[in-house]
């Protein structure tokens, strides 16, 4: 398997522009997670999906952020309008549904480095 | 609110030495994860620990979990330069239930191993 795929890998945009980040999870995985990493705040969970349904979006910082998962193989994270403080590395991760005695790890994609000028 | 604290946050050590990174978390949790991150790279999974007393080893790294103390340790034996990286512990806040949850991460331990 190719692992979790994210695009673009790098994005530079100007304040006020719309930004769309994309993620393809590992085939067959039940969960998809979006995280953000900054020097100041570390790694933070933004939102996650189970079987394409959003389960917890309490980490989404503002209404400017939205995420969708229209099917099992694709998810988007959109920022509109973008602001300089949104500059960060955005990671997508996926995992299988755990059993009572077994849990597989969350597999992280390569990340999208976003710079908002 | 679930909190995950790692210490130390920075560690510089010499090759051949042993050291331990500590991870404390604030609430009952089913699962404890350790990840490695190289500069500019993604997170690489090292261990998933599921139960009290769990111990896992891979090469020079050994992780353990004490759920009663809410403490996990990552022990490095006879460190080598290639182990230089940032190490994160993370906790899945799912409690005695089914399914998975997002991870709450510690701030990471930046480890430098000098020849």
Main CATH class of chain B: Mainly Beta
Radius of gyration of chain A: 14 Å
Q: What's the β-strand tally of chain B? A: 11
Number of strand segments of chain A: 11
> How large is the count of helical segments of chain A?
0
Order of helices and strands of chain B: EEEEEEEEEEE
Q: Greatest interface and its residue counts?
A: A-B, 29 and 25 residues
In round numbers, the mean pLDDT of chain A is 94
Look at the structure and give the mean pLDDT of chain B.
Answer: 91
- Envelope shape of chain A: globular
Helix content of chain B: under 10%
Stretches of chain B where pLDDT is under 50 for at least 5 consecutive residues are none
Q: Whole-number radius of gyration of chain B?
A: 14 Å
Based on the structure, what is the oligomeric state of the protein chains? heterodimer
Total domains of chain B: 1
Structural class of chain A: mainly beta
Order of helices and strands of chain A: EEEEEEEEEEE
Short description:
The complex is a heterodimer of chains A (117) and B (115). Chain A is mostly beta strands and 117 residues long.
Give a verbal description of the structure:
The complex is a heterodimer of chains A (117) and B (115). Chain A has no helices and 11 strands. With 117 residues, chain A is mainly β. In chain A, strands 2, 4, 5, 6, 9, 10 and 11 form a 7-stranded mixed β-sheet that branches. Chain A has a 4-stranded antiparallel β-sheet with strand order 1-3-8-7, with no helix packed on it. In chain A, 38% of the residues are buried. The mean pLDDT of chain A is 94. With 115 residues, chain B is mainly β. Chain B has one domain: Immunoglobulins (Immunoglobulin-like). In chain B, the strands form 2 sheets. In chain B, strands 2, 4, 5, 9, 10 and 11 form a 6-stranded mixed β-sheet that branches. In chain B, a hairpin with a 4-residue loop joins strand 7 and strand 8. The model of chain B has no long low-confidence stretch (mean pLDDT 91). Chains A and B meet through strand 4, strand 5, strand 9 and strand 10 of A and strand 4, strand 5, strand 9 and strand 10 of B.
């Amino acid at each position: 398997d190719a692992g979790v795929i994210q695009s673009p890998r790098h994005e530079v945009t100007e304040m006020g522009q719309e930004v769309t980040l994309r993620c393809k999870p590992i085939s067959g995985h039940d969960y998809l997670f979006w995280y953000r990493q900054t020097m100041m705040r570390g790694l933070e969970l933004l939102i996650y999906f189970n079987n394409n349904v959003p389960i917890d979006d309490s980490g989404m910082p503002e209404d400017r952020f939205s995420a969708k998962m229209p099917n099992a193989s694709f998810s988007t994270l959109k920022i509109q309008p973008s602001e300089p403080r949104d500059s960060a590395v955005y990671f997508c991760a996926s995992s299988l549904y755990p059993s009572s005695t077994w849990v597989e790890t969350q597999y992280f994609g390569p990340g999208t480095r976003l710079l908002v000028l | 609110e679930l909190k995950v604290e790692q210490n130390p946050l920075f560690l510089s050590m010499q090759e051949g030495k042993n050291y331990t990174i500590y991870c404390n978390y604030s609430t009952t949790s089913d699962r404890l994860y350790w990840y490695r991150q190289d500069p500019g790279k993604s997170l690489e999974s090292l261990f998933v620990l599921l139960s009290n007393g769990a111990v896992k080893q891979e090469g020079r790294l050994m992780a353990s979990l004490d759920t009663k103390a809410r403490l996990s340790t990552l022990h490095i034996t006879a460190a080598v330069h290639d182990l230089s990286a940032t190490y994160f512990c993370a906790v899945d806040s799912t409690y005695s239930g089914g399914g998975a949850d997002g991870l709450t991460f510690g701030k990471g331990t930046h480890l430098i191993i000098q020849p």
